[in-house]
Amino acid sequence: MVRFNDIVDEILKYNPQADVPTLERAYIFSAQAHKGQTRLSGEPYLVHPLEVAYTLTKMNLDIPSVVSGLLHDTIEDSYVNKKEIEEYFGKEVAELVDGVTKIGQIPLKTSEDSRVENFRKMILATSKDIRVILIKLADRYHNMQTLNFLNSDRQVDIARETLEIYAPLAHRLGIEWIKGELEDEAFKYLHSLEYKTINTKIAKKKKERDAYIHEVIELLKSKFEQYELHAEVSGRAKRLYSIYRKMMLEKVELDDIYDLTAFRVKIDSVKECYLALGLIHSFFRPIPGKFSDFIALPKPNMYQSLHTKVVGPYGEKIEIQIRTHEMHKIAEEGIAAHWKYKEGRAFDPKEDKIFGWLRRVIESQQELKDNKEFMEVFKIDLFPDEIYVFTPKGDVKELPKGATAVDFAYAIHSQLGHKCVGAKVNGRLVPLRHELKSGDIIDIQTNPAHKPSKDWLGFVKTSRAKTKIRQWIKAEQRERSIELGKTLIEKELSKHDMSFSKMLKSGELLNIGKEFSFETVDDLFASVGYGLYTPLQVLSKVIPENEKPGKLKQIISSIKRSKDNAIKIQGVDGMVVRFAQCCNPIPGDTIFGFITRGRGLTIHAADCPNIHTYDEQRRIEVSWELNKGFTYPVKLKVLGDDRKGLLSDISSTMASNKVNIIGAQAMTNSDRTAAGIYEIEIGHMSQLQKVIKSIQKIKGVRSVERILGTV
Length: 711
Ligand code: MN
Hints:
This protein is of the alpha+beta class. The protein has 28 helices and 18 strands. A hairpin with a 5-residue loop joins strand 6 (386-390) and strand 7 (396-400). It starts with a helix and ends with a strand. The chain binds manganese (II) ion. Manganese (II) ion (MN) binds at residues 48, 72-73, 139.
């Protein structure tokens, strides 16, 4: 059992100036907080924080970390709160203890492999300070050692969580000894039978193996001495879980595994590592393809070593790792090694595979002056660009920072996104644009009648949400366009006593569509509704010729009226008026007429590029006769701030666009916005677009949209 003095002794070994009084205060504080509490083992609860703090000294951690180790369960398991800890031990310790408490509250549900990685990231993202994870690992290390006191269901749950989440975290931070311990302990509970079998067999052959290890070590040593290499050689049985994993992966029996032992050569310099490797290969035949150079290419967790497999004295395979003393310390202690051995310059900062944050730590380490400054580095945001949040069922979703409830809804399912009206974050109702934080539990509220809004595009962060919303809007616009186009064509046909439904049934409308290269009638309707073609253009072939001049007469009469004496056109009725093919002017466009000899009057759009090729003198100013046949009533919904003068600004903007307002209704909402619905007369889409654009420019206007049907 660890006593408080053991902790102090350990700390003084690596930090002779350690603030022992603060440690003492933390010890007393923890003892008071946990007074009367016992562990399931029957021991006083205080044993646990002492063990955790002791493990932290084994990682050579700083005083705030060890103090936090002593206090780590006080918030969760006693009446103490964060504020109190801050009062007594300062903000740094309070943050660390709070961080450890928060990790404990993450509802970890381990299941599919892909999600496990997200859980690990979530822990990293929630912690914000690597020391929090180190304390949590020390906590888990002791809990695993006392797991036998729990019931078997809890044992399996905790063991699995340890194997899937905490052991990989320890590995990622490069703390191999903790990783190994956690794995072996978890293995004991998850596959107890296999654990026992391997354990027994290894124990049985212990004597034999010890003799063998001794023999190989002596052999290696004598060779090194011959060549004056000062190397430390050791051999040990491999860890149980790594043997088990090897058996599973390579589908071999325990008796077949020769390399149950691993040999290690520790040496002074990198140069000597390669010398030793060459020497070993000269007397033990290397097995092809079994050599790895992790010195030149370190692993992401900073691990460096040379690995080789050779054929040993009995024809057996031997695995040998060769590394410098410094590499060894980092291999065993990982991040923690940096507290002690700050000169760790063995890492190539160019190594891209090192995790971003880890690389920053290592690079910035060069400029760090003392431990305290070094510690600051660990307070960086580990995942500056991501957040990790939960579904109500406990699944983790990764989202970019700044993601909102709508992003979350679309990340689950596009239908959930389309129908979402609000969200509960950690049980509290929030608006859709609410920004999520790591660790939030989000419950999306839906309404089956709800539809996505264009406004959402203004705040969603994920491209998935953006794409889904745009797709929906596009599909909806198409639907509206089809409806509108249908109505316009139907109206136009009824003017000429033709039946829309008959033409639809007979396929005549489809044929018309095909002439315009449309595959379906809906495509044809949509093109009219969208304003690509006018109903007249589309129907020009089916409308009897003698019914068309009506329209042309109107144009000519407007020429006569507006340009009374400018040009006298003889024989108006007989004059051919055509629309230029190059620009296809349609109602709403500004137009010019050009008299062409023998071909009558050709009407061009004012912005037609061909207009300049015509003789100025042949130009006649013409305008559309916007009678009822050429205007379409359109309803616009304008949403804006509820401010004085907004309504009059909107109507004067419409007037300056020469748009006639047929009807208007306005209402103010409780959220200080005003909504207005204007029914206006529009000759063409382009005019409508102009009006919409200029209304959008009015101060306080939030959105302008065209609506169909009754509102
Ligand atoms: Mn604990």
